[in-house]
């Protein structure tokens, strides 16, 4: 399949399922699930070509595993990263002792005073490895990798969740738990 087409549709699908389903008048349930047939029809109404074969290819081959089907592949949702209210029903999970967050230098001053905030998203995103954090931070410029003492945070009562695509999630990371 043409990688430019699949990448473009994947980005649009991510935008729709994580931030703006109303863009194509798509309805998500309270858990972020959309009906696959409705999604395909809505794409077609806006002259965006999508069929089940392409959708399945995107879900199975997305490098960040951003999407998931239900068991019978009749529903689809984004695994995490929503700016709209959805309940992903994630279980609280004890984190690794240290996790990582990729950012860029222009945000460091605010992070040093305010810690990491979820901003418009439902959670702060953390990575299990520096390589992934570097990719995330590199989307906005030269990446700066922060080390988060999640073991200490967890002992202090902060909650952590692990998404279906292995992104660690928490509500906030106070500055005292960040190694700059």
TrEMBL record:
InterPro entries: Ptrans_KptA/Tpt1 (IPR002745), RNA_2'-PTrans_C (IPR042081), RNA_2'-PTrans_KptA (IPR022928), RNA_2'-PTrans_N (IPR042080). It comes from the Bacteria. The keyword Nucleotide-binding does not apply. Keywords: NAD, Transferase. It is an enzyme of class 2 (transferase). Removes the 2'-phosphate from RNA via an intermediate in which the phosphate is ADP-ribosylated by NAD followed by a presumed transesterification to release the RNA and generate ADP-ribose 1''-2''-cyclic phosphate (APPR>P). May function as an ADP-ribosylase. This is Probable RNA 2'-phosphotransferase. Its EC number is 2.7.1.-. NCBIfam families: PRK00819.1-4. Belongs to the KptA/TPT1 family. Pfam families: PTS_2-RNA (PF01885). It comes from Pedobacter miscanthi. The keyword Cell inner membrane does not apply.
């Amino acid at each position: 399949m043409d990688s430019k087409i699949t990448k473009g549709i994947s980005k649009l699908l991510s935008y729709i399922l994580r931030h703006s389903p109303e863009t194509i008048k798509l309805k998500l349930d309270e858990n972020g699930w959309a009906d696959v047939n409705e999604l395909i029809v809505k794409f077609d109404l806006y002259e965006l070509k999508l069929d089940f074969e392409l959708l399945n290819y995107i879900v199975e081959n997305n490098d960040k595993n951003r999407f998931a089907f239900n068991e019978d592949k009749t529903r689809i949702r984004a695994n995490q990263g929503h700016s709209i209210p959805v309940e992903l029903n994630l279980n609280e999970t004890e984190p690794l002792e240290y996790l990582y967050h990729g950012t860029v230098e222009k945000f460091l001053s605010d992070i040093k005073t305010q810690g990491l905030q979820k901003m418009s998203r439902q959670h702060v995103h953390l990575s299990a490895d520096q390589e992934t954090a570097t990719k995330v931070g590199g989307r906005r410029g030269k990446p700066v990798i922060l080390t988060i003492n999640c073991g200490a945070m967890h002992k202090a009562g902060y909650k952590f969740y692990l998404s279906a695509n292995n992104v660690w999630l928490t509500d906030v990371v106070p500055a005292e738990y960040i190694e700059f």
